[in-house]
Amino acid sequence: MEHDLWINDKLTIPGKELSWTFCRSSGSGGQNVNKVETAVELSWSLDDSTVIGPFRKRCLSELYRSRIANGSLRVSVSEQRSQFHNRQIALKRLAALIREAFLPAPPTRKATKPTRRSQRRRVETKKQRGAVKQRRQSRPAIDD
Predict the structure, then answer these.
(1) What average pLDDT values come out for the chain (144 residues) when binned by 10 residues?
(2) What is the CB neighbour count within 10 angstroms for residue 65?
(3) How many CB atoms lie within 10 A of CB 5?
(4) Whole-angstrom distance, CA of residue 67 vs CA of residue 54
(5) Are 27 and 78 in contact (CB under 8 A)?
(6) Per-residue pLDDT at 137
(7) Residue at 76 is within a domain
(8) Residue 68's beta-bridge partner residues?
(9) Which of 27, 48, 105, 131 has the fewest CB atoms found within 10 Å of its own CB?
């Protein structure tokens, strides 16, 4: 029952590199929770993987440091009452994590100065706001 995990056109993880662990789930589900092992933990051993190179392994290791234990990237799911559904969710999550890690870095922002027009607008709104507050402060004189 080993199914390959498709990430993108260039990367597919063979099913033999994925390992599953099942346990009883907590939470809602009635007696189903007490009897059936519906919670799923999917792990993919980065150290033993043959489909990605050392650079990509290092990227994944740095990005998902908290999710990696003993050299394996782990995803746990216990949302549904069905083990089958939890397995499908775990596969989708692992694929999404890997896709996200392999995205190119966004371009760095080039610092720019505010335009003169935007500076003037800012000062004008500050003056208007100050005038409103000044009018609230004015009190009638005793002579009036």
Answers:
(1) 79 88 74 74 88 88 87 88 89 91 89 95 96 84 67
(2) 8
(3) 19
(4) 18
(5) yes
(6) 84
(7) yes
(8) 73
(9) 105
- Domain of 50, in residue numbers: 5-101
Task: Using alpha carbons, select from 34, 45, 26 the residue that is nearest to residue 94.
Answer: 45
CATH of the domain at 68: 3.30.160.20
Q: Tell me if 106 sits within 8 A of 58, measured CB to CB.
A: no
* Cα distance from N-terminal residue to C-terminal residue, the chain: 93
Domain count, the chain: 1
- Cα→Cα distances 40→1, 18, 27, Å: 16, 12, 14
- Whether the CB-CB separation of 13 and 44 falls below 8 Å is answered with yes
Specify the 3-state DSSP secondary structure of 137.
Answer: helix
Q: Is residue 133 part of a domain?
A: no
> What pLDDT shows up at residue 82?
84
**What's residue 118's pLDDT?**
96
**Is there a domain that residue 49 lies in?**
yes
3-state secondary structure of 5: strand
